[in-house]
Specification:
Subcellular location: Plastid, Chloroplast membrane
GO molecular function: carboxylic acid transmembrane transporter activity; organophosphate ester transmembrane transporter activity
Domain Sugar phosphate transporter: 111-401
Low-confidence stretches: 1-71, 88-104, 409-413
InterPro entries: EmrE-like, Sugar_P_trans_dom, Tpt_PEP_transl, TPT_transporter
Helix content: 55-70%
Mean pLDDT: 76
Membrane topology: Multi-pass membrane protein
Radius of gyration: 38 Å
Number of helices: 15
Order of helices and strands: HHEEEEHHHHHHHHHHHHH
Strand content: under 5%
Largest sheet: 2 strands, antiparallel
Number of strands: 4
Length: 413
């Protein structure tokens, strides 16, 4: 190739170039490929117009019938790469979630959420039954709340020690953000236990069916959501049904009533604020660690409250003097504490996967299962009007859930 370049640079350049071309003929190709193409930039021009392939171009040269024009033949490997790149560019973008097509994760996600809801319901049923048995034996709601948070803190410490879940590494600023949520979380459970100790389980959960009302109000205040007229209309039978059931409730007690209402406010405030914190881009909170830190903080906050209100009355001497079966009480308290922790953890895991309103609707529908289970277990007497009021309230919850599901569709249209 160097001798050819020297020949092209001599005084008789045209004859030398012609001789060189005859000495190094182009490879024979089918006649269908002899087309006029523009000169390739991969060929190096000489000072007299001759073009020769650059060393290392990787493709043989074909004379194109153009003065001084040579073009490298297309490489099969390069053509395959070009076709592959064109196919990738022309293919539609893959759906999120590991390149899977849209809709492939819908069924597994639905099954997962369904299983979580079933476990949540079962744990909540057993918690209400065992918790009511404990509150009947020892009417100390603050002490029982502290014991439940202590049980949860034990399971959380075990989870972190066994590395079942990575331990959180948070700053003081992040702990300061969680502290108000832990306080609300503690107060919500205190109010629930006060209500369960004063009235029947079914009546407490009938009152707590008003959670959609508080969910709408708090979502408007903190999340900026505007409810539709149908959603607001569905709140009317919920409130009316609770009022009707309250008027005919045998175990009605004002402390139990207002404690259940206060638990509605605190629990829904906690859910809305937790959802806001879980979706905050500045803080990397996961649902399990957020609930765990809140539980430990709630235990530390509930212990001084217990000592100031009830003192240390949960001791063997007091229980024996009150005629309480200590062994049975301890078993029921341990079961209630275990169910309490895990149903709360499942509830927070579900909250991280759905909206606060959907969580509230699912929680309200859970009342139906809990009310029926408690009535059957404790054989709670229900008058026809009381049952009618409970049914109207739960029907309002069903309408609320349907209207909330229909709202996004109307926006998209």
């Amino acid at each position: 190739m160097q001798s050819m370049a020297a020949a092209c640079s001599s005084s008789s350049s045209s004859r030398a170039c012609a001789a060189a071309r005859r000495s190094y003929p182009s490879p024979a190709l089918p006649s269908s490929r002899h087309v006029a193409l523009s000169p390739s930039p991969s060929s190096a021009p000489s000072s007299h117009g001759c073009r020769w392939p650059v060393a290392g171009a990787g493709a043989p040269a074909l004379s194109l019938g153009i003065r001084g024009g040579l073009r490298p033949l297309p490489s099969p490997l390069l053509a395959a790469r070009t076709r592959a790149a064109a196919a990738v560019a022309a293919s539609p973008p893959a759906a999120d979630g590991g390149g899977k097509p849209e809709g492939t994760d819908g069924i597994p996600r639905t099954l997962q959420l369904g299983a979580m809801i079933i476990v949540w319901y079962l744990l909540n049923i057993y918690f209400n039954i065992y918790n009511k048995l404990v509150l009947k034996a020892v009417p100390f709601p603050y002490t029982i709340t502290t014991f439940q948070f202590a049980s949860g803190s034990f399971f959380i410490a075990l989870m972190w020690l066994l590395n079942l879940h990575p331990r959180p590494r948070l700053s003081l600023k992040q702990y300061a953000k969680i502290l108000p949520l832990a306080l609300i979380h503690m107060l919500g459970n205190v109010f629930t236990n006060v209500s369960l100790g004063k009235v029947a389980v079914s009546f407490t959960h009938t009152i707590k069916a008003m959670e959609p009302l508080f969910s709408v109000l708090l979502s408007v205040m903190f999340l900026g959501e505007t409810p539709s007229a149908l959603v607001l209309g569905s709140l009317v039978p919920i409130v009316g049904g609770v009022v009707l059931a309250s008027m005919t409730e045998v175990s009605f007690n004002w402390i139990g009533f207002w404690s259940a209402m206060a638990s509605n406010l605190t629990n829904q405030s906690r859910n809305v604020l937790c959802k806001k914190l879980l979706t905050d881009e500045e803080d990397s909170f996961d649902d399990i660690n957020l609930f765990s830190i809140m539980t430990v903080m709630a235990f530390l906050l509930s212990a001084p409250l217990m000592l100031s209100v009830e003192g240390i009355k949960f001791n063997p001497s007091y229980l024996q003097s009150a005629g309480v079966n200590v062994k049975e009480l301890c078993v029921n308290a341990a079961l209630a504490g275990t169910c309490f922790h895990f149903y709360q953890q499942v509830s927070y895991s579900l909250l991280a996967r759905v909206s606060p309103v959907t969580h509230s609707v699912t929680n309200s529908l859970k009342r139906v299962v809990v009310i029926v289970s408690s009535v059957l277990f404790f054989r709670t007497p229900l008058s026809p009007i009381n049952a009618l009021g409970t049914g109207i309230a739960l029907a309002g919850v069903f309408l609320y859930s349907q209207f909330k599901k229909a709202k996004p569709k109307s926006k998209a249209a």
